[in-house]
Amino acid sequence: MKILLATLVCALGFARSGDPEPSLAYFSQVRDVAISSPERQNYVAVDQDIWGKAREDLADLRLYDGTTQVPYELKAEQGSTASHESETKILNLVRRGDHTEFDLDVSPATEYNRIRLTLDHKDFLVTATVEGRDTLVGGKPSAGPNPSTLFDFSRENLGSNSTITLPLWSFRYVHVRLSPGILPNDVKRATVDQLQEKKAQWTDAGSCRLGEAQKRKTIFTCEIPARVPVDRVYFDVAGEQVNFRRTVSVADEKEMQVGTGSISRIRMNRGGKTVDYEDLEIRIFTAHPRLTVTIDNGDDAPLKFFAVRPQLLERRLYFEPQGRASLKLFYGDEKLSAPVYDYAKFFREDVAAARAQLGAQMKNAAFTGRPDDRPWSERHRGVLWIAMLAAVAVLTLLAVRGLRAENP
What we know:
Layout: H1 2-14, E1 29-34, E2 42-45, H2 48-53, E3 62-65, E4 68-70, E5 73-76, E6 80-82, E7 86-87, E8 89-96, E9 99-105, E10 112-119, E11 124-133, E12 148-152, E13 160-161, E14 163-169, E15 173-178, E16 187-193, E17 196-198, E18 202-204, E19 207-210, E20 217-223, E21 230-237, E22 244-252, E23 257-270, E24 273-279, E25 281-286, E26 290-296, E27 305-313, E28 315-319, E29 326-331, H3 342-345, E30 354-355, E31 357-358, E32 362-363, H4 376-379, H5 381-406
Parallel strand pairs: 2-30
Antiparallel strand pairs: 1-29, 1-31, 1-32, 2-28, 3-4, 3-29, 5-28, 6-17, 7-16, 8-9, 9-15, 10-14, 10-16, 11-12, 11-15, 12-13, 18-27, 19-20, 20-26, 21-25, 21-27, 22-23, 22-26, 23-24
């Protein structure tokens, strides 16, 4: 009897239902989706209303045509680069007059748009002029692009660049001419690669205000809408602020650091050559309602900012309308896991995808909420405790009676 009772209690305590299935009655929110181009791929952009009511991982988003699900792919619109670097052979490396020249044999690369040089030299500013050639000797060289600016500002702690930018080329040989400042012995290595870039799509995720002035530091406090993630902090620095590099740290409301890095802008002219470069973002990933951004100015004057903006990568739901002019987007079911569609396995983003418009967020009129699917033991803990106490009392009584029977 005791074994049977123990087995029953364990079964009730550990029983679990399977993965919850979606149902229109279980979604708390609904949005109309208006489709203007039903003949091609569409997408809807996730906005702050969705972030505020959906699961934090957006796993409960569902597109419906009536009562039928429409498959989709959820994608963060982050920037991407694809490249394959190849080593080149440096040929005919010589000094002619006051400058250095050399040829590059770029085989086996068939197409490329970047040349990266490894230069054993510090504190320089030069230009690189290039020509493409099909043969090493003879033949008509191509008209090269505008000269690329190469620099190293180690003394000013402003970074370096030794990359020559090209259009997409397929020439077997490239002739490179460097302006005075680099000797043949300084040229150690060269590689080529084909770089394909896609720009990220960013949207603001809150606002920042300037805090009280502090010695050697500029501090901003940022307010973020509930549950909205932040992927970077972008600094809109006044245009007249140039030739700076400042260390930046980002902390949450508990003063835990969630990101660090530096921002810089270089506009420098040396010997008639100009460098124009900037990096004004700090990458992070967090979802806190308040962030503190600290810029370390050292002994320099504080920078002038037009704005400091927390931003997130735009998330998009891509789908195929297949002639439909409207759909509905449902969300607000915390127990749903992410869907698994064949569409996602074969998905390819169409660069001409049309943006579908989301209507206002509304409460789902059919919402009832999920039934309580917790195990019986969790839903009736009071009954279990009473039963357990009663069992303990009975066992205690039986034990006392047994002892009395043994000792009359």
